[in-house]
Amino acid sequence: MISIAPNLLRALFRRVYFVNGTAYAGKSTLVRTLAEKHRGIMCGENYHDALTDLTDAAHQPNLRYFDTMSGWQEFISRTPEAYAAWIEGVSREAADLELLLLIHLSQMNRPVFVDTNIPLDMLHEIAGDHNVLVMLAPQSMSVDRFFDRSDPEKQFLLQKIGEAPDPEAAMANFRACLERLNSPEQYAIFENSGFPVYVRTDTSTPEEAVAFAESVFGLTGEQTTSKEATP
Fold first, then answer.
1. How confident is the model at residue 1 (pLDDT cuts 50, 70, 90)?
2. CB distance 116 to 133 below 8 Å
3. 8 Å CB contact between 29 and 200
4. pTM
């Protein structure tokens, strides 16, 4: 197994800022806003897709699942346990692609803001104490508003659920998958990760999230180690 010593990656990533967390917490908006405001590089959701063509089913079976599945009805009908295991597998396989890209981008002499799914244990190894922010949204927000976004991937998935033999049962099953990913247990893992945590509420604003992130990342002065902010 080829590996890179974590201290070397920490040194390279001193101006790379990672944002992880639950769905609908505002990660994409935050990363985009910080990159624009601080003249940085934005690595948006699934930015690792740029290198997916390098993968194969033997080495990255989770990333290549769409090539091996029988069809979209298989995808939406998996059990919550199988879905959660796949998401975890994708995160770890995609982390390799993210690292390849970030090693390159970190040399651009600009801050890099990353919407990432790199596992928390790996982030502890490769990132500084003030280079990671966890963003959380309540389970009801992460699950109930999952399809509120207009991005093509979510709308395509909603279409496939509607094409199922029993659309209501398919939607109930997929909601159960989302609830598993955003369960209280998973929420607690993020909350107790040791990284600063920002909690989105119904009254939160993007400006508040940006200010908190800038404080965590040391972009506007004093850094913070606060574990939670509830605006």
1. low
2. no
3. no
4. 0.89
